[in-house]
Amino acid sequence: MLSTLLILVMGYFLVAIMGIAIKIFLKPYSSSIESSGIKGAGALIGVFERILVFTFVLTDQYAAISIIFAAKSIARFSELNDRNFAEYYLLGTFTSITMALIIGIIFKLVFGDISF
User: What pLDDT digit, counting tens, does each position of 20-47 carry?
Assistant: First the structure.
C-alpha cells in the first residue's frame, strides 16, 4: 500500500512539474501571443490537465482524454479565431497531453497495474 502511494505521488509530481519543460518548449512561440485572462491560469490548467491524463492512463480510460481537449476547446472557442493563438494553444495542449501520456505509459510498463 505504501509503495503504491509513493509511486503515485512520484508520478503526479513528475507530471505536475512537466510544465517547466513545456514552458521552455513554447517560449519561442509565445512572443506573438497576447496574454489575456488570469495570470498563471493557463499553467495551472495545464497541471490539472496532465494530472487527469496521467490518472486516465493508469485507469485505462484513454477515451476520457478527449473530454479534456473538448472542454478546453469550448472554453477557448472565441480565441481560436486568432490563428497565432490557435497554433500556440494546440502546441501547448498536444505537448502537455503527450508528455502525460508518455509518463503514464512508462509508469504502467515499469510498475505494472497500479491499483487505487
Answer: 999 899 888 877 776 666 777 778 989 9
17: phi then psi, degrees, rounded to nearest 5: -80, -5
Query: What's the predicted TM-score (pTM) here?
Result: 0.85
Q: What are the boundaries of each domain within the chain?
A: 2-111
How far is the C-alpha of 54 from the C-alpha of 78, rounded, in Å? 28
Render pLDDT for 73-105 as a digit per residue (tens, 0 to 9).
887 777 778 788 788 888 889 999 999 999 999
Tally of residues, the chain: 116
CA–CA dist 84, 32 (Å, integer):
7
